[in-house]
Design goal:
single chain; alpha/beta; Rossmann fold; six-stranded parallel β-sheet; 15 helices; Glyco_trans_4-like_N; Glycosyltransferase_grp1; transferase; Glyco_trans_1; Glycosyl transferase, group 1
Amino acid sequence: MSLKILLVNSGYPPNNIGGAEIYVESLAEALAEKHKVFIYTTNPPSKSSDGIKILGIKEPSSIRGLLISTTYKNPKIEENFRETLKEVDPDIVHFHNIWRFRTARLPIISKEEGYPTIMTLHDYWFMCPTSLLMFKRQIPCSGPNPHKCAECWNCTVLNLAPMKFSALKSILDYVNTPTEFSRRFEVLKETLRIIDGIIAPSKFLAKMAVSIGVPSIKIYYIPNGYPYSRFVGFKKKRSYYDDGRIVFGFVGVPTPQKGVHIATSALKYLKNANIELRIYGKIINKSYIKKLGNDPRVKIMGKFTDPKEPYSEIDVLLFPSLSYENCPLVLAEAALSRVPVIASDLGAIPEFVINGVNGFLFKPGDPKDLADKMKLIIKDPELIRKMGEAQMPPRDIPYHASEILRVYKKIMN
């Protein structure tokens, strides 16, 4: 039976590209092989593609997002979504990231209109308005606390805002009160409570959802699939076996919460090693890059367009994240390209990197411990091949889509 499926996500390629966006696009394309698929997003592309109809609305002003009360309720978008539901009349509504809509009520509206409703959790927005669950973007946070959340949010907003907004501190402290954060959390809990089913791509995220009251019976543990088509024709351009030099690499947007500075600091403990650290990814924080030091072995490779490129040139992926990662795209790509990983022992990362098997885990935020793990590979480069062969690639999107469809049908019945 062909279904009418409405996928809802904050962004959609090519206007927005991130891990969740790539996943939703590939899921939509797989589902569209046999079903009618609609997308509801912010800033929708002007043209629909591959039989997928893309609908949506312009993203609300980011200035409005300074106020916590405007991050979880937005009557204009809520009404637009309600009209979209009537227009599409889907058999099921599948939510993903919704933070850009500046409202948490879209799943509630879907249920009010009588539609089976499911959500895949990609981050911690249901617990934390920054999605990161990091206190002041510096250290992992234990969970929602109104007073702590108010302090963190106001500090984070001021650090991210342009200089002309620096005078807002007193205003933010006045309007972004602990009471407002309590209200936000209650709305988000109600949203998760009313949804028919929740897909958690990691056991860690499933556990976090249960910790705030989501019944475990509602949760489906299904790791994200990956579009193998992105890695068709993958071939190594170089390796340790070519020149005796081990190239470690970071892949992603280099930001403090991704811990790139931990990787560059680790080089101080590896002064005489014949190694290189390549940093691949779009530079959005130039001042942070300047603080990474001047070790000549660090190469800033910058933005890339072919996802295969970094993995064709590195021997080992470094993933020194300081935040609770869920189902990182780069770990799936490293697995597909048979590149071993040295990663932080934090969040869901240990579900994908098995210490001593397909890589090593190190103490989060500890450059010395990271260096010690890098030394293990430097002293025994054969681990590059052994651990690469032990990698566990994710499921391809077509198979993954069949898993998702089984959940749809269970909920619809």
